[in-house]
Amino acid sequence: MSSALTRPIYDTKCCFAVHHIMPKEATYKLCKGRKIFVGTKGIPSPVTSDAQIICYPNPLSKVNDTTQIDLDTVYGGDQRC
């Protein structure tokens, strides 16, 4: 295995291509909001394009907005619902 940081992206021919990224870019990812549902106690929770639920989002966020998700805290267990 290589220690290079990569992300799969679509190229202009609609095929996956490997894109090399910097270490700072590897700490976050961009997700699109697919839907917003109201959970317990009336708290809105958006669901992202990769099926993550964001607890206590920005109140101004709407459907189809792009959200930057910090991978260090989300997958570390701090912000997971």
What radius of gyration results from the CA coordinates?
15 Å
Shape call: elongated
Strand content: 35-45%
Residue ranges: pLDDT <50 for 5 or more in a row?
none
SS content category? mainly beta
Amino- and carboxy-terminal Cα gap = 32 Å
> Mind telling me which CATH architecture this is?
Beta Barrel
What is the string of SSEs from the N terminus onward?
A: EEEEEH
Keywords:
81 residues; mainly beta; OB fold (Dihydrolipoamide Acetyltransferase, E2P); 3-stranded antiparallel β-sheet; two-stranded antiparallel ribbon; 5% helix; rRNA binding; rRNA-binding; Ribosomal_eS4_central_sf
Topology of helices and strands:
Elements lengths: L5 E5 L5 E5 L7 E11 L5 E5 L17 E5 H4 L7
Antiparallel strand pairs: 1-2, 3-4, 3-5
